Amino acid sequence: QETAVNIAHSTNxxxxxxxxxxxxxxxxDEMTASLQDVIxxxxxxxxxxxxxxxxxxxxxxxxxGNAMLFQQVGCLMNSAICCRVTPLQKAMVVNxxxxxxxxxxxIGDGANDVSMIQEAKVGVGIMGLEGSQATLASDYxxxxxxxxxxxxxxxxxxxxxxxxILVQYSFYKNLVLTWTxxxxxxxxxxxxxx
Length: 194
Hints:
Largest sheet: 3 strands, parallel
Order of helices and strands: HEHEHHEHEHEHEH
GO molecular function: ATP binding; ATP hydrolysis activity; ATPase-coupled intramembrane lipid transporter activity; metal ion binding
Number of domains: 2
Structural class: alpha/beta
Radius of gyration: 24 Å
Keywords: Magnesium, Metal-binding
InterPro entries: HAD-like_sf (IPR036412), HAD_sf (IPR023214), P_typ_ATPase (IPR001757), P_typ_ATPase_c (IPR032630)
Pfam families: Hydrolase_3, PhoLip_ATPase_C
CATH class of the largest domain: Alpha Beta
Strand order of the largest sheet: 1-2-3
Strand content: 5-15%
CATH topology of the largest domain: Rossmann fold
Helix content: 40-55%
Domain P-type ATPase C-terminal: 136-194
CATH architecture of the largest domain: 3-Layer(aba) Sandwich
């Protein structure tokens, strides 16, 4: 857990101003109480917060009775650090937050990230030493993590603009084609002959 928090600090996912909520529960009821406590403390607070949870505790947070509480806690946080989680748990977390209606992006570099990448709306695979399973399962593949900003901010925006222009051209093409046929039918007196 400490290693994951240190990596989050080094990648600027969290900083010293964040309030960290480590969720370490060993039972379902303990997790329910912990989640409710975080909701009570963080609701209305103006502080940046980060959630830190391990895979053993995550199984209680993703249980049917706690899933909605965990979703509420996740929405109150600025960052979340999930460490020592199984591939199925990664996919379940992505699915839980995808149900909110937002676009979910999953980034992974190994075979253990494949189910999470496939569950997300947008999957990004990072080419690395762990093999090419993540890049083969992803929608986009990048050579290094530092290229993610360019992929999302630059290429994603340009793709959206290009698609919008393509839709406008399609409407224009259909309008021109249809009006040409309508005007020609008036010209030939609706005879059906060309």
